[in-house]
Amino acid sequence: MNLAELLKKDLVRKVESDREKAKEILLMAERDLRVASDNLKNKNYDWALAIAYNAMLSAGRALMTYKGYMPVSEAHHLAVVQFCAAVFPAESIGLANTFNRYRVRRHDVVYGESDSVGKEEAEKALENAKKFVELVKERL
User: Fold this and answer.
1) CA distance readout (Å), 84 to 20, 35, 47, 67, 132
2) CA–CA separation, 7 vs 16, rounded Å?
3) How far are the Cα atoms of 32, 51, 67, 83 from residue 78, in angstroms, in the given order?
4) What does each C-alpha distance from 99 to 3, 53, 139 come to in angstroms?
């Protein structure tokens, strides 16, 4: 889905760009990367994945804020994912798809499948979250 479709479907709304707020939100993403790493070290794999996803979500929100958009639907997590997929360069679309997979996985972990994330999956989630946050940082 492209940006025009997201606007038409009222999933995102155009607002004034706020670069300072975007930087604050990006700092939250970086904090979440550290917390996810701590949870990984402590073998809290479910929470490592969930927090790594949250870092991606915060980075996506930072990008939206920087570019002058905000999610407006009840499915705001999905709106952030779709926005990132719409504005990322083609070579980074795989990372946007990974972001969406972690959105679904995090929902499973938080709302039902506790203790379902293994060490390798948590490590990969953190690795991908770091790449995602770096990609957003390059765009701010």
Assistant:
1) 19, 23, 23, 11, 10
2) 15
3) 19, 16, 18, 8
4) 17, 7, 17
Distances (CA, A) of 136 to 11, 22, 64, 116: 20, 10, 10, 29
For residues 72 and 14, give the distance between their C-alpha atoms in angstroms, rounded to a whole number. Answer: 10
Tokens of 111: 């709302």
Give SS3 for 113: coil
> 14 with 68: CB under 8 angstroms?
yes
12 residue type, one letter? V
Give strand pairing partners of 10: none
Provide mean pLDDT across the span 132-140.
91
Tell me which residue of 63, 61, 93, 95 sits closest to 77, measured CA to CA: 61
What pLDDT score does 107 carry?
Answer: 85
Please give the Cα distance from 54 to 129 (Å, whole number).
9
Tell me, what's the pLDDT at 136?
93
User: Class assignment of domain 3-139?
Assistant: mainly alpha
